[in-house]
Amino acid sequence: MTTATKQQSTKATSAPRTLMLIDGAWVESAKAEFLPVENPANRQVIAEVPRGRDEDVDRAVQSAARAFEKWKRVAPRERGKLLLKIADEVEAQSEALALLIATETGNALRTQSRPEAKSAADMLRYFGGLASELKGETVPLGEQVLSYTRREPIGVVGGIIPWNSPVILGALKIAMSITAGNTLVLKAAEDAPLAVLMMAKICAAHLPPGVLNVLTGYGEECGAPLARHPLVRKLSFTGSTEVGKLIMHAAADRIVPVSLELGGKSPIIVFPDADNDKTVDGVISGMRFTRQGQSCTAGSRLFLHRSIFDSLLGKLADKLSALKIGDPTDEATDMGAIINRKQFERVCSYIEDGLHQQGARLLLGGLPPREGPLAQGYFVEPTVFAEVRNEWRIAREEIFGPVLVAIPWEDEEEAVRMANDSHYGLAAYVWTHDIGKGLRTAHAIESGWIQINQGIGQSPGHSYGGFKQSGIGREFSLEGMLDSFTQRKSVTVNLEY
Ligand code: NAI
Ligand code: MG
Prior knowledge:
Elements: H1 3-10, E1 20-22, E2 25-27, E3 34-39, E4 44-50, H2 54-71, H3 76-92, H4 94-105, H5 109-128, E5 138-139, E6 145-153, E7 156-160, H6 166-179, E8 183-187, H7 194-204, E9 212-215, H8 219-228, E10 232-238, H9 241-254, E11 258-261, E12 267-270, H10 277-286, E13 301-305, H11 309-321, H12 341-356, E14 361-364, E15 383-386, H13 393-396, E16 403-409, H14 412-420, E17 424-425, E18 427-431, H15 435-444, E19 449-452, E20 467-468, E21 471-472, H16 478-485, E22 486-494
Parallel strand pairs: 7-8, 7-10, 8-9, 10-11, 12-13, 12-18, 13-16, 15-16, 18-19
Antiparallel strand pairs: 1-2, 3-4, 5-6, 6-22, 11-21, 14-15, 17-20
Helix pairs in contact: 2-8, 3-5, 4-5, 4-7, 5-6, 10-11
């Protein structure tokens, strides 16, 4: 956390205050301090939330630990039924949630925030319906022995989420933890806590106190003490690789299981037969341009076969220049603003780097306008650099902005080698009509999720997670919940006693 942000938080504002959820009650932090939440599209402070610290974390974790003793004994299908009710209500309130997401994150309502709010309901419903699948096995050790396993909840889960899709990730951690019989202390991202708190309000109306606690605060002040708390038995983190490493260290100190969903620099490989409009639409969607590229799965390295390099980039530039950037709450807007000043400056510094990189060709976009309506907020236009080399900084580091690099290739092996030459391995995209080539490439790429001929977002049901430094563990699916949010116990009975 920069000092600039911390100083900002001590300034008094007249913005409305939204409280956090501890032990079934809506509370301030123990020190009664607040932090501001800004609308990145116009830099106005829209609300203040509590600036939680150690003592608040401790209260929340103690509450979750008490609640666990009863919650773990609630029959799974009863827990699932509550999740289904919550899902219905999240769906009923999805428009208000969507507006809140758009206002605090800068993500456009039509293209991002509304689909996100709806998917959150879907996520809660998916896991709620799976409650009775928390099954164990019997082990055939012979007629004289009964040996079976149980899937038991782990205890208090510490969940930490980022700001880029706060409600869907919040819903995911809530659904997986609580369905499996754990209790949860969820730390919202300081930049996007409001819609998560609104969803928490819906949850709290259906859950016993302490089963879900939601804290607001800065990473080092509130996230770090949660990761370190001795009563937290499982950590589930989504965010940067840098912080992911700290979380894993904290987990190592107490030997608690950890799921990490971290960054990416995912490749899109386009074969010569795929030089068409559908591919271009898929590249735009895979790169998450309409979320300003702020996605862990963004396909931000575009590997184009030399024979179609200029032709496909020409089509891409045409479509990207037609995207409407501006007010996230306007129905006509395709693409909103970057989350905050720090990220905005970071993205700009990568663009600067690309502009100074000898050999790189700016195809579209560039540094953001300093005047006019877009200068009111943290807006960056879709930016594409062509003739990029895979070893340059703009091709290696996660930019987390609408900046795509296009890299030419000539043979398939070379394309795969470059795609895999990254410390990340979260997602990948392959475009070709040749099914053999497509599958061969998918199998050769070191990533947790490969899409062939599409570039959509995650759906509940498929185990999602990264290879290499993109993370460990899988979430989003039944198997993910079973493996990451329960622990197996074996019971062996001698029937001849
Ligand atoms: P971050 O990783 O710092 O923040 C994510 C969450 O972790 C927030 O709730 C934050 O408060 C918390 N956190 C921060 N420091 C912590 C600590 N020491 N202990 C415990 N919790 C802590 O991400 P940030 O700073 O917002 O973005 C930086 C970069 O991270 C982005 O440019 C992007 O590359 C990557 N990122 C990746 C995301 C993903 O979905 N995989 C999401 C957000 C960021
Ligand atoms: Mg950070």
